[in-house]
């Protein structure tokens, strides 16, 4: 069953004459993991931001359906409550906001939206320990303020930990591999692999093929100038790593 259906999506910047997405079509089934690759400025992060509901972007045309319903009708917080999670390329620090309090509030807000009972403090702390153990996360990270003083790798691991705690239906990872060394990359990839199941879909946005050596996608899409120029299986990523994006750009230009 389709979890996410994007049809002819055109997006610009609100109050500016800037057209970024120019007719994106994409369908992600429940249980699948798709990767979106492409050069800088192709529209990958804009697509992630639109799915999460960032208000600086304006949908000019097209539709997005999430679990059969119109996603564009939902406010950002409603999308989060409905199970959409965005892991940022540059996670923000929240000085003075403890990880435990932040996550407890977020988890119970999502549970309330699902019609589930709130977790008690004891239940929540047990769940935190279980998820941290599952991901091999240093327990000390969960005792600090959100991302404050974290290294780049720690911030990205923390994003995956938040994903594990919130248990979204659709997880969007916007260049989560950016700036990671090999150990941190493998840690993030292992976390994603442990969270893949038949009830959740992933959209992994990346510049590079290397994370896809550890997270094997069901489908790869290449964005070029605001459109999906080519789709394929995991072998497409290896071709891009070897030959770059220029051959796809030439194909698009020849077809125009």
From TrEMBL:
<feature type="domain" description="ABC transporter">
    <location>
        <begin position="4"/>
        <end position="250"/>
    </location>
</feature>
<dbReference type="Pfam" id="PF00005">
    <property type="entry name" value="ABC_tran"/>
</dbReference>
<keyword id="KW-0067">ATP-binding</keyword>
<dbReference type="InterPro" id="IPR003439">
    <property type="entry name" value="ABC_transporter-like_ATP-bd"/>
</dbReference>
<dbReference type="GO" id="GO:0005524">
    <property type="term" value="F:ATP binding"/>
</dbReference>
<dbReference type="InterPro" id="IPR003593">
    <property type="entry name" value="AAA+_ATPase"/>
</dbReference>
<keyword id="KW-0547">Nucleotide-binding</keyword>
<protein>
    <submittedName>
        <fullName>Fe-S cluster assembly ATP-binding protein</fullName>
    </submittedName>
</protein>
<comment type="similarity">
    <text>Belongs to the ABC transporter superfamily. Ycf16 family.</text>
</comment>
<dbReference type="InterPro" id="IPR027417">
    <property type="entry name" value="P-loop_NTPase"/>
</dbReference>
<dbReference type="GO" id="GO:0016887">
    <property type="term" value="F:ATP hydrolysis activity"/>
</dbReference>
<dbReference type="InterPro" id="IPR010230">
    <property type="entry name" value="FeS-cluster_ATPase_SufC"/>
</dbReference>
């Amino acid at each position: 069953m389709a979890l996410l259906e994007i049809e002819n999506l055109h997006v610009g910047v609100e109050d500016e004459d800037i057209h970024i997405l120019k007719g994106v079509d994409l369908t992600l089934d429940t249980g699948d993991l798709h990767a979106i690759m492409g050069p800088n400025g192709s529209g990958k992060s804009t697509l992630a931001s639109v799915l999460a509901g960032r208000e600086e972007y304006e949908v000019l045309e097209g539709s997005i359906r999430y679990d059969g319903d119109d996603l564009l009708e939902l406010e950002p917080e409603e999308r989060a409550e409905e199970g959409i999670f965005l892991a940022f390329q540059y996670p923000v620090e929240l000085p003075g906001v403890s990880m435990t309090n932040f996550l407890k509030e977020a988890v119970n807000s999502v549970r309330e939206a699902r019609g589930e009972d709130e977790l008690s403090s004891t239940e929540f702390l047990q769940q935190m320990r279980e998820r941290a153990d599952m991901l091999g996360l240093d327990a000390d990270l969960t005792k600090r303020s959100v991302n404050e003083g974290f290294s780049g790798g720690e911030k990205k691991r923390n994003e995956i930990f938040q994903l594990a705690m919130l248990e979204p239906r659709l997880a969007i990872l916007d260049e989560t591999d950016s700036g990671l060394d090999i150990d941190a990359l493998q840690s993030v990839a292992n976390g994603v692999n442990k969270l893949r199941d038949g009830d959740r879909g992933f959209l992994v946005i990346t510049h590079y093929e290397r994370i896809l050596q550890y997270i094997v996608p069901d489908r790869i899409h290449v964005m070029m100038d605001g459109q999906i120029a080519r789709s394929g299986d995991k072998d497409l990523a290896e071709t891009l790593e070897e030959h770059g994006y220029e051959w796809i750009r030439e194909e698009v230009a020849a077809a125009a």
